[in-house]
Design brief:
Blueprint (H helix, E strand, L loop, with lengths): L2 H43 L5 H22 L4 H11 L5 H8 L5 H14 L4 H4 L10 H15 L5 H8 L2 H24 L6 H9 L7 H23 L2 H13 L11 H9 L2 H16 L5 H19 L1 H18 L4 H7 L3 H9 L6 H35 L6 H38 L8 E2 L13 E2 L50 H19 L5 H18 L4
Parallel strand pairs: 1-2
Helix pairs in contact: 1-2, 1-3, 1-7, 3-4, 4-5, 9-11, 9-20, 10-11, 11-20, 12-19, 13-14, 14-20, 15-19, 16-19, 17-18, 18-19, 21-22
Length: 561
């Protein structure tokens, strides 16, 4: 490469840098001015602008526009030679040499040689200095103006007009409505013994001293409701509440102890209604004290108490099994025997011990806590069974008894009333949040959600659907009515149609066995299974097991070994 080409190449690079600086200043000024206009329009008309995208788009646009403009306006070699001739005072030596360098006459060669010599004498930093354009202060000035507008220009437009449209009467009316709603919720919270304490003061600290609009009043009420719902949900998930629910699940397994004066007590225990069960027990005690029961009724009551006691004391066996399983799981997790014994003392101790275990998944920890609640429920059932057994012995001795059982039912009734009050407070809070969210036009986290189906039974209210419990329906002040069942055989005759239902009754075995109905049911089930296999409803890995199952049923129907 000749000296002329080397000088032109270095000059082209420096010219590209200078032009890039000029383009960068122009693009920055344009982008900042456009962003300033967007800020003013957004603040005046209260528009919703995605500022993250605006700033990111402005930066990318400035970069692309700067590089594109510098590349599109780059000068050709001859133009670069003219610029060097002018800046280095070469009197058009380089530009003339670029034109005649391909000629072979003596004058042209002399011009090229002279240009080569003078090109070597060019000091590039003096001829083409790299410096920003004189207008470069416009770029930071425009950016500073945009930032000042962002920070200092207040919002106006529809939001401010809406705030001024709300009259003082409307604001006072909204505050009165929210005050009445808050009083209803606080009354339910007092019944549930839930103290908001610091949460209430923190929520009130966020409220404006002088609300300027109805919306501000409603949003302040939403913050208070959110705080109350979080505290309620935390208290509904504590150990006592879970233990009460587990106890009710265990009591649902009670069966009818036979006819007698304790029918109401057994029924209410199975339903988990501890208040009604306590009242039934008190009524029985009064009858015993006043000798209102005949000898046959006393005998029936003793038998009923013994039957209920046997059913409840069976929970001790389940308690031992659960305790054994839990100890094995915790031992596999690396806990020492001393730590296991300490964790088994109470649900709170178990929860503290599980928090220190790092090698257990959340599902395994939740499973252990559920087993702990079931074990505590079995323990309570066993204690209740012992009290009933003791009461039966006292009745046999001619005494009333049942005081300790009544105290236990009273404690359970108190816990149940607190849980019902919590559910009522949760329902009231969710209703208020729904109403406020509809007025504001937003969506609150407390609104009901659609969940996945989960197995289980519960009388507690929930915020959605899918799990055990009562769904988020319309709330009423009415309580569920008591009901009883009575088995009556209808005077009907079989007209030859199929039997669509049957009941197994404990009793002596009857000689002989009919297999016709069983064979017909097996045949129908096999046809349905075949259709499910053909249509791929049953997964391939389970098709073999299904076929084997129905084959074994067919052999049983044919009485084959």
């Amino acid at each position: 490469m000749s000296r002329i080409d080397d000088v032109l190449a270095r000059a082209s690079r420096r010219l590209w840098v200078v032009r890039t600086l000029h383009a960068l200043v122009r693009c920055c000024v344009s982008a900042a001015a456009l962003t300033l206009a967007i800020v003013l329009v957004e603040r005046i008309f209260r528009l919703s602008v995605p500022w993250a995208w605006v700033f990111a788009g402005a930066g990318v646009a400035v970069l692309i526009a700067t590089l594109s403009w510098a590349w599109a306006t780059r000068p050709a070699k001859l133009a670069v030679a003219r610029i060097i001739d002018e800046r280095a005072d070469l009197r058009e030596s380089l530009s003339t040499a670029m034109v005649v360098r391909t000629h072979r006459d003596a004058w042209s060669r002399a011009v090229v040689e002279t240009a080569e010599t003078r090109a070597g004498e060019v000091v590039m930093r003096d001829a083409l200095p790299i410096s920003p354009p004189p207008s470069w202060p416009l770029a930071p000035g425009t950016i500073i103006a945009m930032l000042l507008a962002w920070w200092l220009v207040p919002s106006a437009g529809p939001a401010r007009e809406r705030a001024t449209m709300d009259s003082p009467h409307e604001i006072r009316q909204a505050m009165l409505e929210q005050s009445e709603a808050q009083k209803r919720l606080e009354e339910l919270l007092r019944k549930a013994r839930v103290d908001l304490g610091a949460d209430r003061s923190e929520a009130e600290a966020l409220d404006p001293e002088q609300p300027r609009s109805v919306e501000e009043v409603q949003r302040a009420a939403l913050r208070k409701l959110t705080s109350a719902m979080e505290r309620l949900e935390a208290q509904r998930q504590d150990a006592d509440a879970q233990q009460l629910q587990s106890l009710r699940d265990e009591l649902r397994k009670l069966t009818n102890p036979g006819p007698g004066p304790l029918d109401q007590l057994a029924q209410k225990l199975a339903q988990g209604d501890f208040g009604a069960a306590r009242q039934a027990l008190e009524q029985l005690q009064k009858q015993l004290e006043n000798s209102d029961l005949t000898e046959a009724q006393r005998t029936q009551a003793e038998e009923q108490l013994k039957s209920l006691a046997e059913q409840l004391e069976r929970a001790a066996q389940r308690q031992e099994q659960l305790e054994k399983q839990m100890r094995e799981q915790m031992a596999r997790a690396g806990m020492s025997q001393e730590q296991i014994n300490q964790a088994m003392q109470s649900p709170q101790a178990m929860q503290e011990a599980l928090q220190q275990l790092q090698n257990m998944s959340p599902q395994q920890r939740q499973q252990l806590m559920d087993q702990m609640q079931q074990m505590q429920a079995c323990k309570s059932c066993s204690g209740m069974g012992q009290q009933m057994s003791q009461m039966a012995q006292q009745m046999a001795a001619g005494q009333a008894g049942g005081e300790q059982l009544g105290d236990m039912l009273s404690q359970l009734e108190s816990m149940q009333l607190e849980m019902q009050a919590m559910d009522a407070a949760m329902m009231e809070a969710m209703d208020q949040m729904d109403q406020l969210s509809q007025k504001i036009g937003g969506f609150c986290e407390g609104m009901p959600q659609i969940g996945q189906w989960r197995e289980g039974e519960s009388d507690r209210y929930g915020q959605g659907s899918g799990g055990p419990g009562k769904g988020r329906g319309a709330s009423t002040a009415d309580s569920p009515f008591d009901f009883t069942t009575k088995s009556v055989k209808a005077p009907t005759a079989n007209q030859g149609g199929p039997i669509i239902a049957s009941t197994m009754i404990d009793g002596p075995t009857i000689a002989g066995e009919s297999r016709a109905e069983f064979a017909a049911a097996v045949e129908q089930g096999e046809q349905a299974a075949s259709e499910a296999i053909d249509t791929l409803v049953v997964p391939r890995e389970l098709q073999g097991a299904v076929k084997s199952y129905f084959s074994s049923l067919q052999r049983q129907a044919r009485d084959e070994p």
